[in-house]
TrEMBL record:
The chain crosses the membrane at residues 21-40, 52-75, 96-119, 144-163, 175-194, 206-225, 245-270, 290-313, 344-365, 371-390, 411-431, 443-460. GO terms for cellular component: plasma membrane. The keyword Transcription regulation does not apply. One of its GO terms (molecular function) is transmembrane transporter activity. It is found in: Cell membrane. Coiled coil: none annotated. Its main location: membrane. It comes from Brevibacterium antiquum. It is a multi-pass membrane protein. InterPro entries: AA/rel_permease1, APC_superfamily. This is Amino acid/polyamine/organocation transporter, APC superfamily. Keywords: Cell membrane, Membrane, Transmembrane, Transmembrane helix. The keyword DNA damage does not apply.
Length: 484
């Protein structure tokens, strides 16, 4: 065997195992801490009140913990790149696997596009004269060439980093997440030193509708722990430890968001929230009585954009790669870079989408959030069902990390995860007075993406049953059809 062949064998599918404990943990945690905490905290406080917003995130965090626990067992048992793709094809067959994987890929890409729009929005706070050469107006939001190019150039740079290899991407992730944690501690210090308890009033506002509105954005803000399973073949850790990192990353994100909401509420009266565009930044500036600290929070917001963007580009590109090598979507997406061993074509495709997103203007931020959230929840629900199916059908399956012990505790956790994610999805449907009100643009984005997935789904050959060999059988049938 030549050295080149030996390296290829060690890499399994061709990926390089380059990520350690901190790398993997910060990929998951950093993915969940994007830019939303900078631009949306004021809306959460106004919509649900201080305690209402905190409880909404606690409830959402509990749901995500159950889902994360389910993922922890699955990633330990099936530690392959592509996460959901592998769990669902083994549990429920190729078509369900494609639908679920395509759904969460759309959710991931929506985060990437969101961050591409958030970069110029943040830069405008630091550089007020950024807007030049007006192009057009989208939903009453003017789009300027110089403004949009900030997001486009950043998209090209992040894509380049990811093409260069997972180790470089993880080094960037670790450095930037460390800065994010420092910003969180500064906000905690500012709230304890310069905040006023009276400012936290009202503790509740908006009633059930306000609470539901905050809960509805939680899937978008907490999505990211599942990026760890996408990179499983690039993590040089025992499968059981990879599974535990999934749950730890969720708990870290819950703590981060609650600290941000609580400390921001102490900075200024609720009546002033509407007068601030970036409440979290202005909160720290107010508590320390210096504009410098507000700019530091904006720097933290930029850091969050990079960590989230970087992680979801990694996750979505590996999901597309996994679907492509299984013959589910065009093989073009399954190409690995000959030198860096990264899914180069998938990265380029997602990079192009993110480079175009800023030209939709700032109004696209809300549309993209709302389009991605239900897609993410669909995938979480299907993975929860797949977990229950595998527990029932393959009890002897090797599970290095078995949640709930040897009793039926694991099944109970799986059922709770399935019920909670289904209930969360129902919140998006306009069938109750408390349903989240999504704009038609969001439904259009959501529907278009799923329609493409359904098209690919019905092109798959029939007769392939779920099980350990489902992907091998599917690929053999696809290759046979392509030769005809």
């Amino acid at each position: 065997m030549t050295q080149q062949q030996s390296v290829a064998t060690d890499r399994g599918h061709g990926f390089v195992k380059a990520l350690g404990t901190v790398d993997a943990l910060f990929i998951g945690f950093g993915a969940m801490i994007g830019f939303g905490w900078v631009v949306l905290t004021g809306e959460w406080l106004s919509g649900a009140g201080t305690l209402g917003a905190i409880l909404a995130f606690a409830v959402g965090g509990v749901i995500m913990c159950f889902v994360g626990t389910v993922y922890s067992e699955l990633v330990a048992a099936i530690p392959h790149a592509g996460g959901e793709h592998n769990y669902l094809i083994r549990a429920m067959g190729p078509r369900v696997s494609l639908f679920g994987s395509w759904a969460i890929t759309g959710g991931y890409i929506s985060v990437v596009m969101f961050e591409a729009v958030a970069v110029p929005k943040t830069a405008l706070y630091l550089f007020p004269n950024l807007e030049h050469i007006k192009l057009w107006t989208v939903a009453e939001s003017d789009v300027y060439l110089t403004w949009a190019l900030v997001g486009t150039v950043t998209a090209i740079f992040i894509s380049w980093i990811n093409i260069r290899g997972v180790k470089l991407a993880s080094l960037v992730q670790t450095f930037v997440v460390s800065f994010l944690i420092i910003v969180a501690f500064l906000l905690l210090t500012g709230g304890l030193v310069g905040g006023e308890t009276a400012n936290a009033e009202p503790l509740f506002t908006g009633g059930g509708a306000g609470f539901i509105a905050v809960v509805a954005v939680v899937p978008f803000l907490f999505v990211g722990f599942d990026v760890i399973p996408q990179s499983a073949e690039e993590i040089k850790l025992p499968p059981a430890k990879i599974g535990k990192l999934v749950v730890i990353s969720v708990l870290m994100a819950v703590a981060f968001y609650i600290i941000i909401i609580w400390m921001t509420s102490l900075a200024m009266p609720a009546s002033e929230l509407a007068t601030h565009d970036l409440v979290t930044a202005d909160a720290l500036a107010t508590m320390f009585n210096s504009a410098f600290w507000g700019k530091l929070v904006i720097a933290g917001g930029l850091a969050g954009i990079i960590t989230s963007w970087n992680a979801f580009l990694m996750g979505s590109s590996r999901l597309m790669w996994a679907m492509a090598v299984a013959g589910m979507i065009p093989a073009w997406f399954g190409k690995l870079h000959p030198r860096y061993r990264t899914p180069v074509n998938s990265i380029i495709f997602i990079g192009i989408l993110s480079a175009l997103a800023p030209f939709l203007g700032a109004a696209a931020l809300g549309w993209i959030v709302d389009a991605g959230s239900p897609a993410i929840v669909i995938a979480y629900f299907l993975v929860s069902i797949g977990f229950l199916v595998l527990r029932k059908r393959e009890p002897a399956m090797d599970r290095p990390l078995r949640i709930g012990g040897k009793s039926n505790g694991g099944m109970v956790i799986g059922v709770i995860s399935a019920v909670l994610t289904l209930a969360l999805f129902v919140l998006y449907l306009p069938i109750t007075p408390w349903s989240a009100q999504l704009a038609w643009q969001s439904w259009a984005m959501f529907g278009l993406w799923l329609a493409v997935g359904v098209f690919f789904m019905f092109r798959l050959p029939t007769g392939v049953k779920a099980g350990p060999n489902a992907e091998i059988e599917l690929l053999a049938k696809v290759k046979s059809l392509r030769r005809k």
